[in-house]
Design brief:
The complex is a heterodimer.
Chain A: E1 4-7, E2 10-11, E3 14-15, H1 18-33, E4 37-43, H2 51-54, E5 59-64, H3 73-87, E6 91-95, H4 100-110, E7 115-119, E8 121-124, E9 130-136, E10 141-147, E11 152-156, E12 172-174, E13 187-194, E14 207-211, H5 221-230, E15 234-237, H6 239-243, E16 264-268, H7 274-277, E17 285-290, E18 303-306, H8 309-324
Helix pairs in contact in A: 3-4, 5-8
Chain B: E1 2-6, E2 9-11, E3 17-18, E4 25-26, E5 32-34, H1 38-51, E6 56-62, H2 68-77, E7 81-85, H3 95-109, E8 114-118, H4 129-137, E9 141-151, E10 155-162, E11 165-172, E12 175-179, H5 191-199, E13 203-205, E14 224-230, E15 239-242, H6 246-259
Parallel strand pairs in B: 1-6, 1-8, 6-7, 7-13, 8-12, 9-12
Antiparallel strand pairs in B: 2-5, 3-4, 9-10, 10-11
Helix pairs in contact in B: 2-5, 3-4
The chains are: A alpha/beta, B alpha/beta.
């Protein structure tokens, strides 16, 4: 029986946690269908491949080659195409990261099959097909989508499922033979410039401390970094704060920024325009602090305080500091 | 250099109606605008035109006849001309069928040295059409581009904004680039731009004129189908308290964080 595949993802040769989240989704699909779950590993000198077995994989298809040390969309899609033709999976899922959202549309076009973006739920329908549920129009609408062609392909929103532990002592690694021809690339990879900050990308953080217009100025964002540090989180921002130049665009949450689903989202001095709410409404717990009692952010908050965030956060930092001692 | 910019008209309001039967968005009867994230692609094309000699920019969109307004918006910012792909047979297309249709139109126009598009549209939010058009055309795709570092008639070097940093990559032309918001600060159209747009003729294509395979367009040509649409409850009924003073507000926050076992 054709199996379920996940595309494992790496940052600097190390497996990224989104790879385990994909396996958690994949495991539930493969179990329902009664088929094997495989993870596809493409890269060079990749560490910890065995950990994929601890998180749900039955099989790993590994291509470890110097020529694919960096992400080359043409080579990666050519290799994946040839693997699909050889092993015939019925479902392929990848994470809705910059990698997944680049490779999957290219691959699905080459395979002449459908692709659904940024799913928050995957399940097997009564007829055995993949039901892919995703938010659209800023989360105002949820649509369930079915693919009529094979393989059925979807990207999955990071943090939409918790990794599982799986006891697979006999996972097998398959090393497929790839023709040299497929490694020819039109891309010339030059270099990677790592961000100075060691913070996680906001889409992958457990805690996001987000500030908006109500933080009043750039200097006040310092207290957000301090709070984020204390809560093991990262700093996010509304569009206004980014447009004011208080923080780079990569921190923007919302329709024209990133979509986040952290365990805790703190909206500080953010009124909650519909475009902002679109980017954070799938968070587990939402705390809002805003001076305006009618701010729409309070409609999506689990706990809200009507007050000035720039006065309250310093007090919170003090209180948290006391706790440490 | 011939530059094509792929744009989309999106609903301007957050009130969107979904056709219960087909599960696709009803695009008539609502206010529409040029997808905000496409503005960055249009702006970047115009900046290239200002920098290099002999650049011609063509905007392309697919949609109902009223989507010609999006083309006019692009012309008002500095695009030279534009095409609207409009045909009832295109309706209900998913990203695969949309990318096929756009790539056939690009072929009909005679191809481009560089195709630019936005990261994604703010309605469908898939970000799939751009890369898929590149794959249909068989040209290199550069996604999440935050800077065009170098561009000549022969090649382009870009900076891609990815998780944890930026990647520098180079390809020979032709190529497709999807840009992110970091790349520039789009201008507001000036009076002469607006006048130019007003008198501009938006050329249109139908399924026959782009020689599209009828089995690959519209809802019928789409490999995916919407089977169910529902409206999630976005609101939460959390406790909202008024801060008496910053100190007691901070204490209340601390208690809440403790109750959720965050600290």
């Amino acid at each position: 029986m054709p199996g379920v595949w996940t595309l494992a993802e790496f940052r600097e040769n190390t497996i990224n946690s989104v790879s385990y989240e994909l396996l958690a989704w994949g495991r539930s699909l493969a179990d329902t269908l009664g088929v094997e779950l495989s993870s596809i590993v493409l890269g060079y000198e990749i560490k910890d491949v065995e950990t994929l077995f601890d998180h749900g994989a039955d099989t790993v298809y590994k291509i470890d080659d110097k020529r694919i040390e960096h992400f080359l969309p043409d080579v990666y899609s050519n290799i994946l195409c040839s693997l699909v033709k050889q092993y015939d999976p019925q479902i392929i899922i990848a994470s809705a990261t910059t990698y997944g959202r680049t490779i999957m549309p290219i691959l699905s076009t080459k395979l002449n099959t459908g692709l659904t973006a940024d799913c928050t739920k995957l399940e097997i329908g009564e007829d055995g097909t993949l039901l892919q549920t995703r938010p659209a129009i800023g989360g105002n609408v949820m649509a369930t989508i079915r693919t009529q062609t094979k393989p059925q392909m979807a990207t999955v929103r990071p943090r939409s499922k918790k990794p599982i532990s799986y006891d697979k002592s006999q996972g097998k690694i398959i090393i497929p033979k790839i023709e040299d021809e497929l490694f020819k690339s039109a891309y010339r990879w030059i270099k990677f410039e790592k961000d100075e900050s060691t913070d996680l990308p906001i889409q992958e953080a457990d805690v996001v401390i987000a500030g908006g217009r109500g933080m009043k100025d750039e200097k006040n964002f310092e207290m957000l970094y301090e709070l984020a540090k204390k809560l093991n989180g990262v700093v996010g921002a509304s569009r206004t704060a980014v447009d004011m130049g208080w923080i780079p665009y990569s921190h923007q949450v919302g329709l024209s920024g990133k979509t986040v689903s952290p365990h805790l989202y703190m909206a500080l001095g953010i009124s909650g325009a519909i475009q902002h709410i679109a980017g954070m409404s799938s968070s587990d717990i939402v705390i809002a602090v805003n001076t305006d009692p009618d701010a729409p952010i309070f409609n999506v908050a689990d706990f809200g305080i009507i007050g000035d965030a720039t006065e309250i956060i310093p007090e919170l930092l003090k209180a948290l500091g006391d706790k440490d001692e | 250099m011939k530059i094509g910019v792929l744009i989309k008209q999106v609903p301007a309001t957050d009130k969107v109606r979904i056709d219960e039967k087909t599960g696709t968005m009803v695009r008539s009867e609502m206010e529409a605008e040029l997808n905000p994230l496409d503005m960055y692609a249009v702006e970047e094309a115009v900046r290239i035109k200002e920098r290099l000699k002999d650049v011609h920019i063509t905007a392309i969109t697919m949609g109902p006849p009223s989507a010609s307004d999006a083309i006019k918006d692009a012309i008002s910012i500095g695009c030279d001309d534009g095409y609207l792909l409009t045909d009832r047979r295109f309706a209900g297309a998913d990203t695969w069928a949309t990318a096929y249709t756009l790539s056939m139109a690009i072929k009909r126009i005679g191809g481009f040295d560089l195709v630019l598009c936005g990261e994604r549209a703010t309605d469908g939010e898939t970000g799939q059409v751009g890369p898929s058009v590149g794959a249909q055309m068989g040209i290199p795709v550069l996604t999440y581009v935050s800077e065009i570092v170098e561009l000549t008639d022969g090649y382009v070097r870009v900076k891609r904004s990815i998780e944890g940093g930026h990647e520098i990559v180079e390809v020979d032309l032709p190529a497709l680039i999807s840009v992110v918001k970091e790349i520039n600060d789009p201008r507001i159209p000036n009076l002469s731009g607006k006048l130019k747009a007003k008198s501009a003729e938006v050329k249109s294509f139908d399924a026959v004129s782009i020689e599209a395979d009828q089995s690959k367009i519209g809802l019928g040509g789409s490999p995916t189908r919407v089977v169910k649409v529902f409206y999630p409850k976005l609101t939460r009924s959390g406790e909202i308290v008024r801060s008496k003073d910053p100190q007691s507000a901070a204490e209340a926050l601390l208690e809440f964080l403790k109750s959720k076992e965050i600290i």
